[in-house]
Amino acid sequence: MDFLVGTFYSPALFTLRFNAPSSLEIVKRSEACGGHSWLALSKDHKFLYTTVWADPAKVASYKINDDRSATFMNSKPIKAMSGYVVASDTHLYTAGGPTGEVFAINADGSLGELVQELNFREGSGKDDGKTGEVAHGDFGGLRHGSHSVDFSPDGKSLYIADIGHNCVWSYSVDVSAASTGKPPLTLGMKWIASRSNDGPRHTWPHPNGKYLYSLQEHSSMVDVLSVAEDGTTLELVGGASIIPADKDPKDYWADEVRLSRPVKGSPRYLYASTRGLEKSCKGYVAAYRLTAEGLIDGDAIDIYETATSGGIANAVEPAPDSVEKPDVEYMALTDSAEGYVFVLGFDGKKLYEAARTQLVDDEGKTLAAATAVWL
């Protein structure tokens, strides 16, 4: 099983190969146009879309080659550093800090014209999120603004988690916008998080479309939101902690929420990760059992302490399949602190490290691993 990993600061993309149960190696290194904090594949896996941590901020497109390397196609400027991108068949959506953008996707997979801009600032036009000095930096407003963008399973709704405004923005998506030329997004709702210190960072939908999982960066909680039939009305119906009961959320900042691979059409588990704010404070990955409908079934099955703090990563990305051991789930885990890329295994009871490697440059300097996508 192959997957791609980007870095936060270096112009390189890495192709890694995991052979279950314990082999992980770097098989390709592709030249990139900058550091890529987030990666997203097209539905057919022929193209890769990325954030670009550069000045000025950009988003970029790549072609995935037969040998699993990536070739740069083009980039487009955006108003503020992006935290996340996601692609439909016709458009690329991005959000970061105070703003977001929608770009058309050309027939060859490259990025086309800007078709819509989003503004998450309110009142006087100044960012009304809480700003100031924070550990690891502000990343152009990402620590105090919008951070992610994801579709509902049917592609008719879109959700943007906003740390600074302590909310999740929901939008309806006009799937005919590519032919009509109209802006595809219409605001549906601003769902305010249940705790004043939550800070929604990322969301992820259940494949039945009835639930949306919201990861809270500041409180290290993962909440379950019900999604009404309109696709945009959200309501809190459950939640769980990502960190052990004896730990203080102030020492952590949660990172990622994802579902396990579907079994008989439905995922069995929910995974969530958090990072340690200080280098000496290790992060965690938690696994929860889900009901058939998609609710969290009790406390975490296991909370795994990661090898490092995770730096500004500790992002988990479950593998789509497991041929060697069908009863074991695998997931990539990226670490920016020491440049490690891990594969974790989960047997339904315990999370464990299955394999690891380290990203380094030609001089042996470690590179800050960002996020992964499975090819």
UniProtKB/TrEMBL annotation:
Which SUPFAM superfamilies does this UniProt record tie to the protein? 3-carboxy-cis,cis-mucoante lactonizing enzyme (SSF75011)
Q: Which InterPro entries match?
A: Cycloisomerase_2, Lactonase_7-beta_prop, WD40/YVTN_repeat-like_dom_sf
| Domain of life from the UniProt record | Eukaryota
Gene3D superfamilies linked: YVTN repeat-like/Quinoprotein amine dehydrogenase
Family of this protein: Belongs to the cycloisomerase 2 family.
Tell me the protein's name: Muconate cycloisomerase 1
Native organism is Neodothiora populina
Q: What is the lineage of its organism?
A: Eukaryota, Fungi, Dikarya, Ascomycota, Pezizomycotina
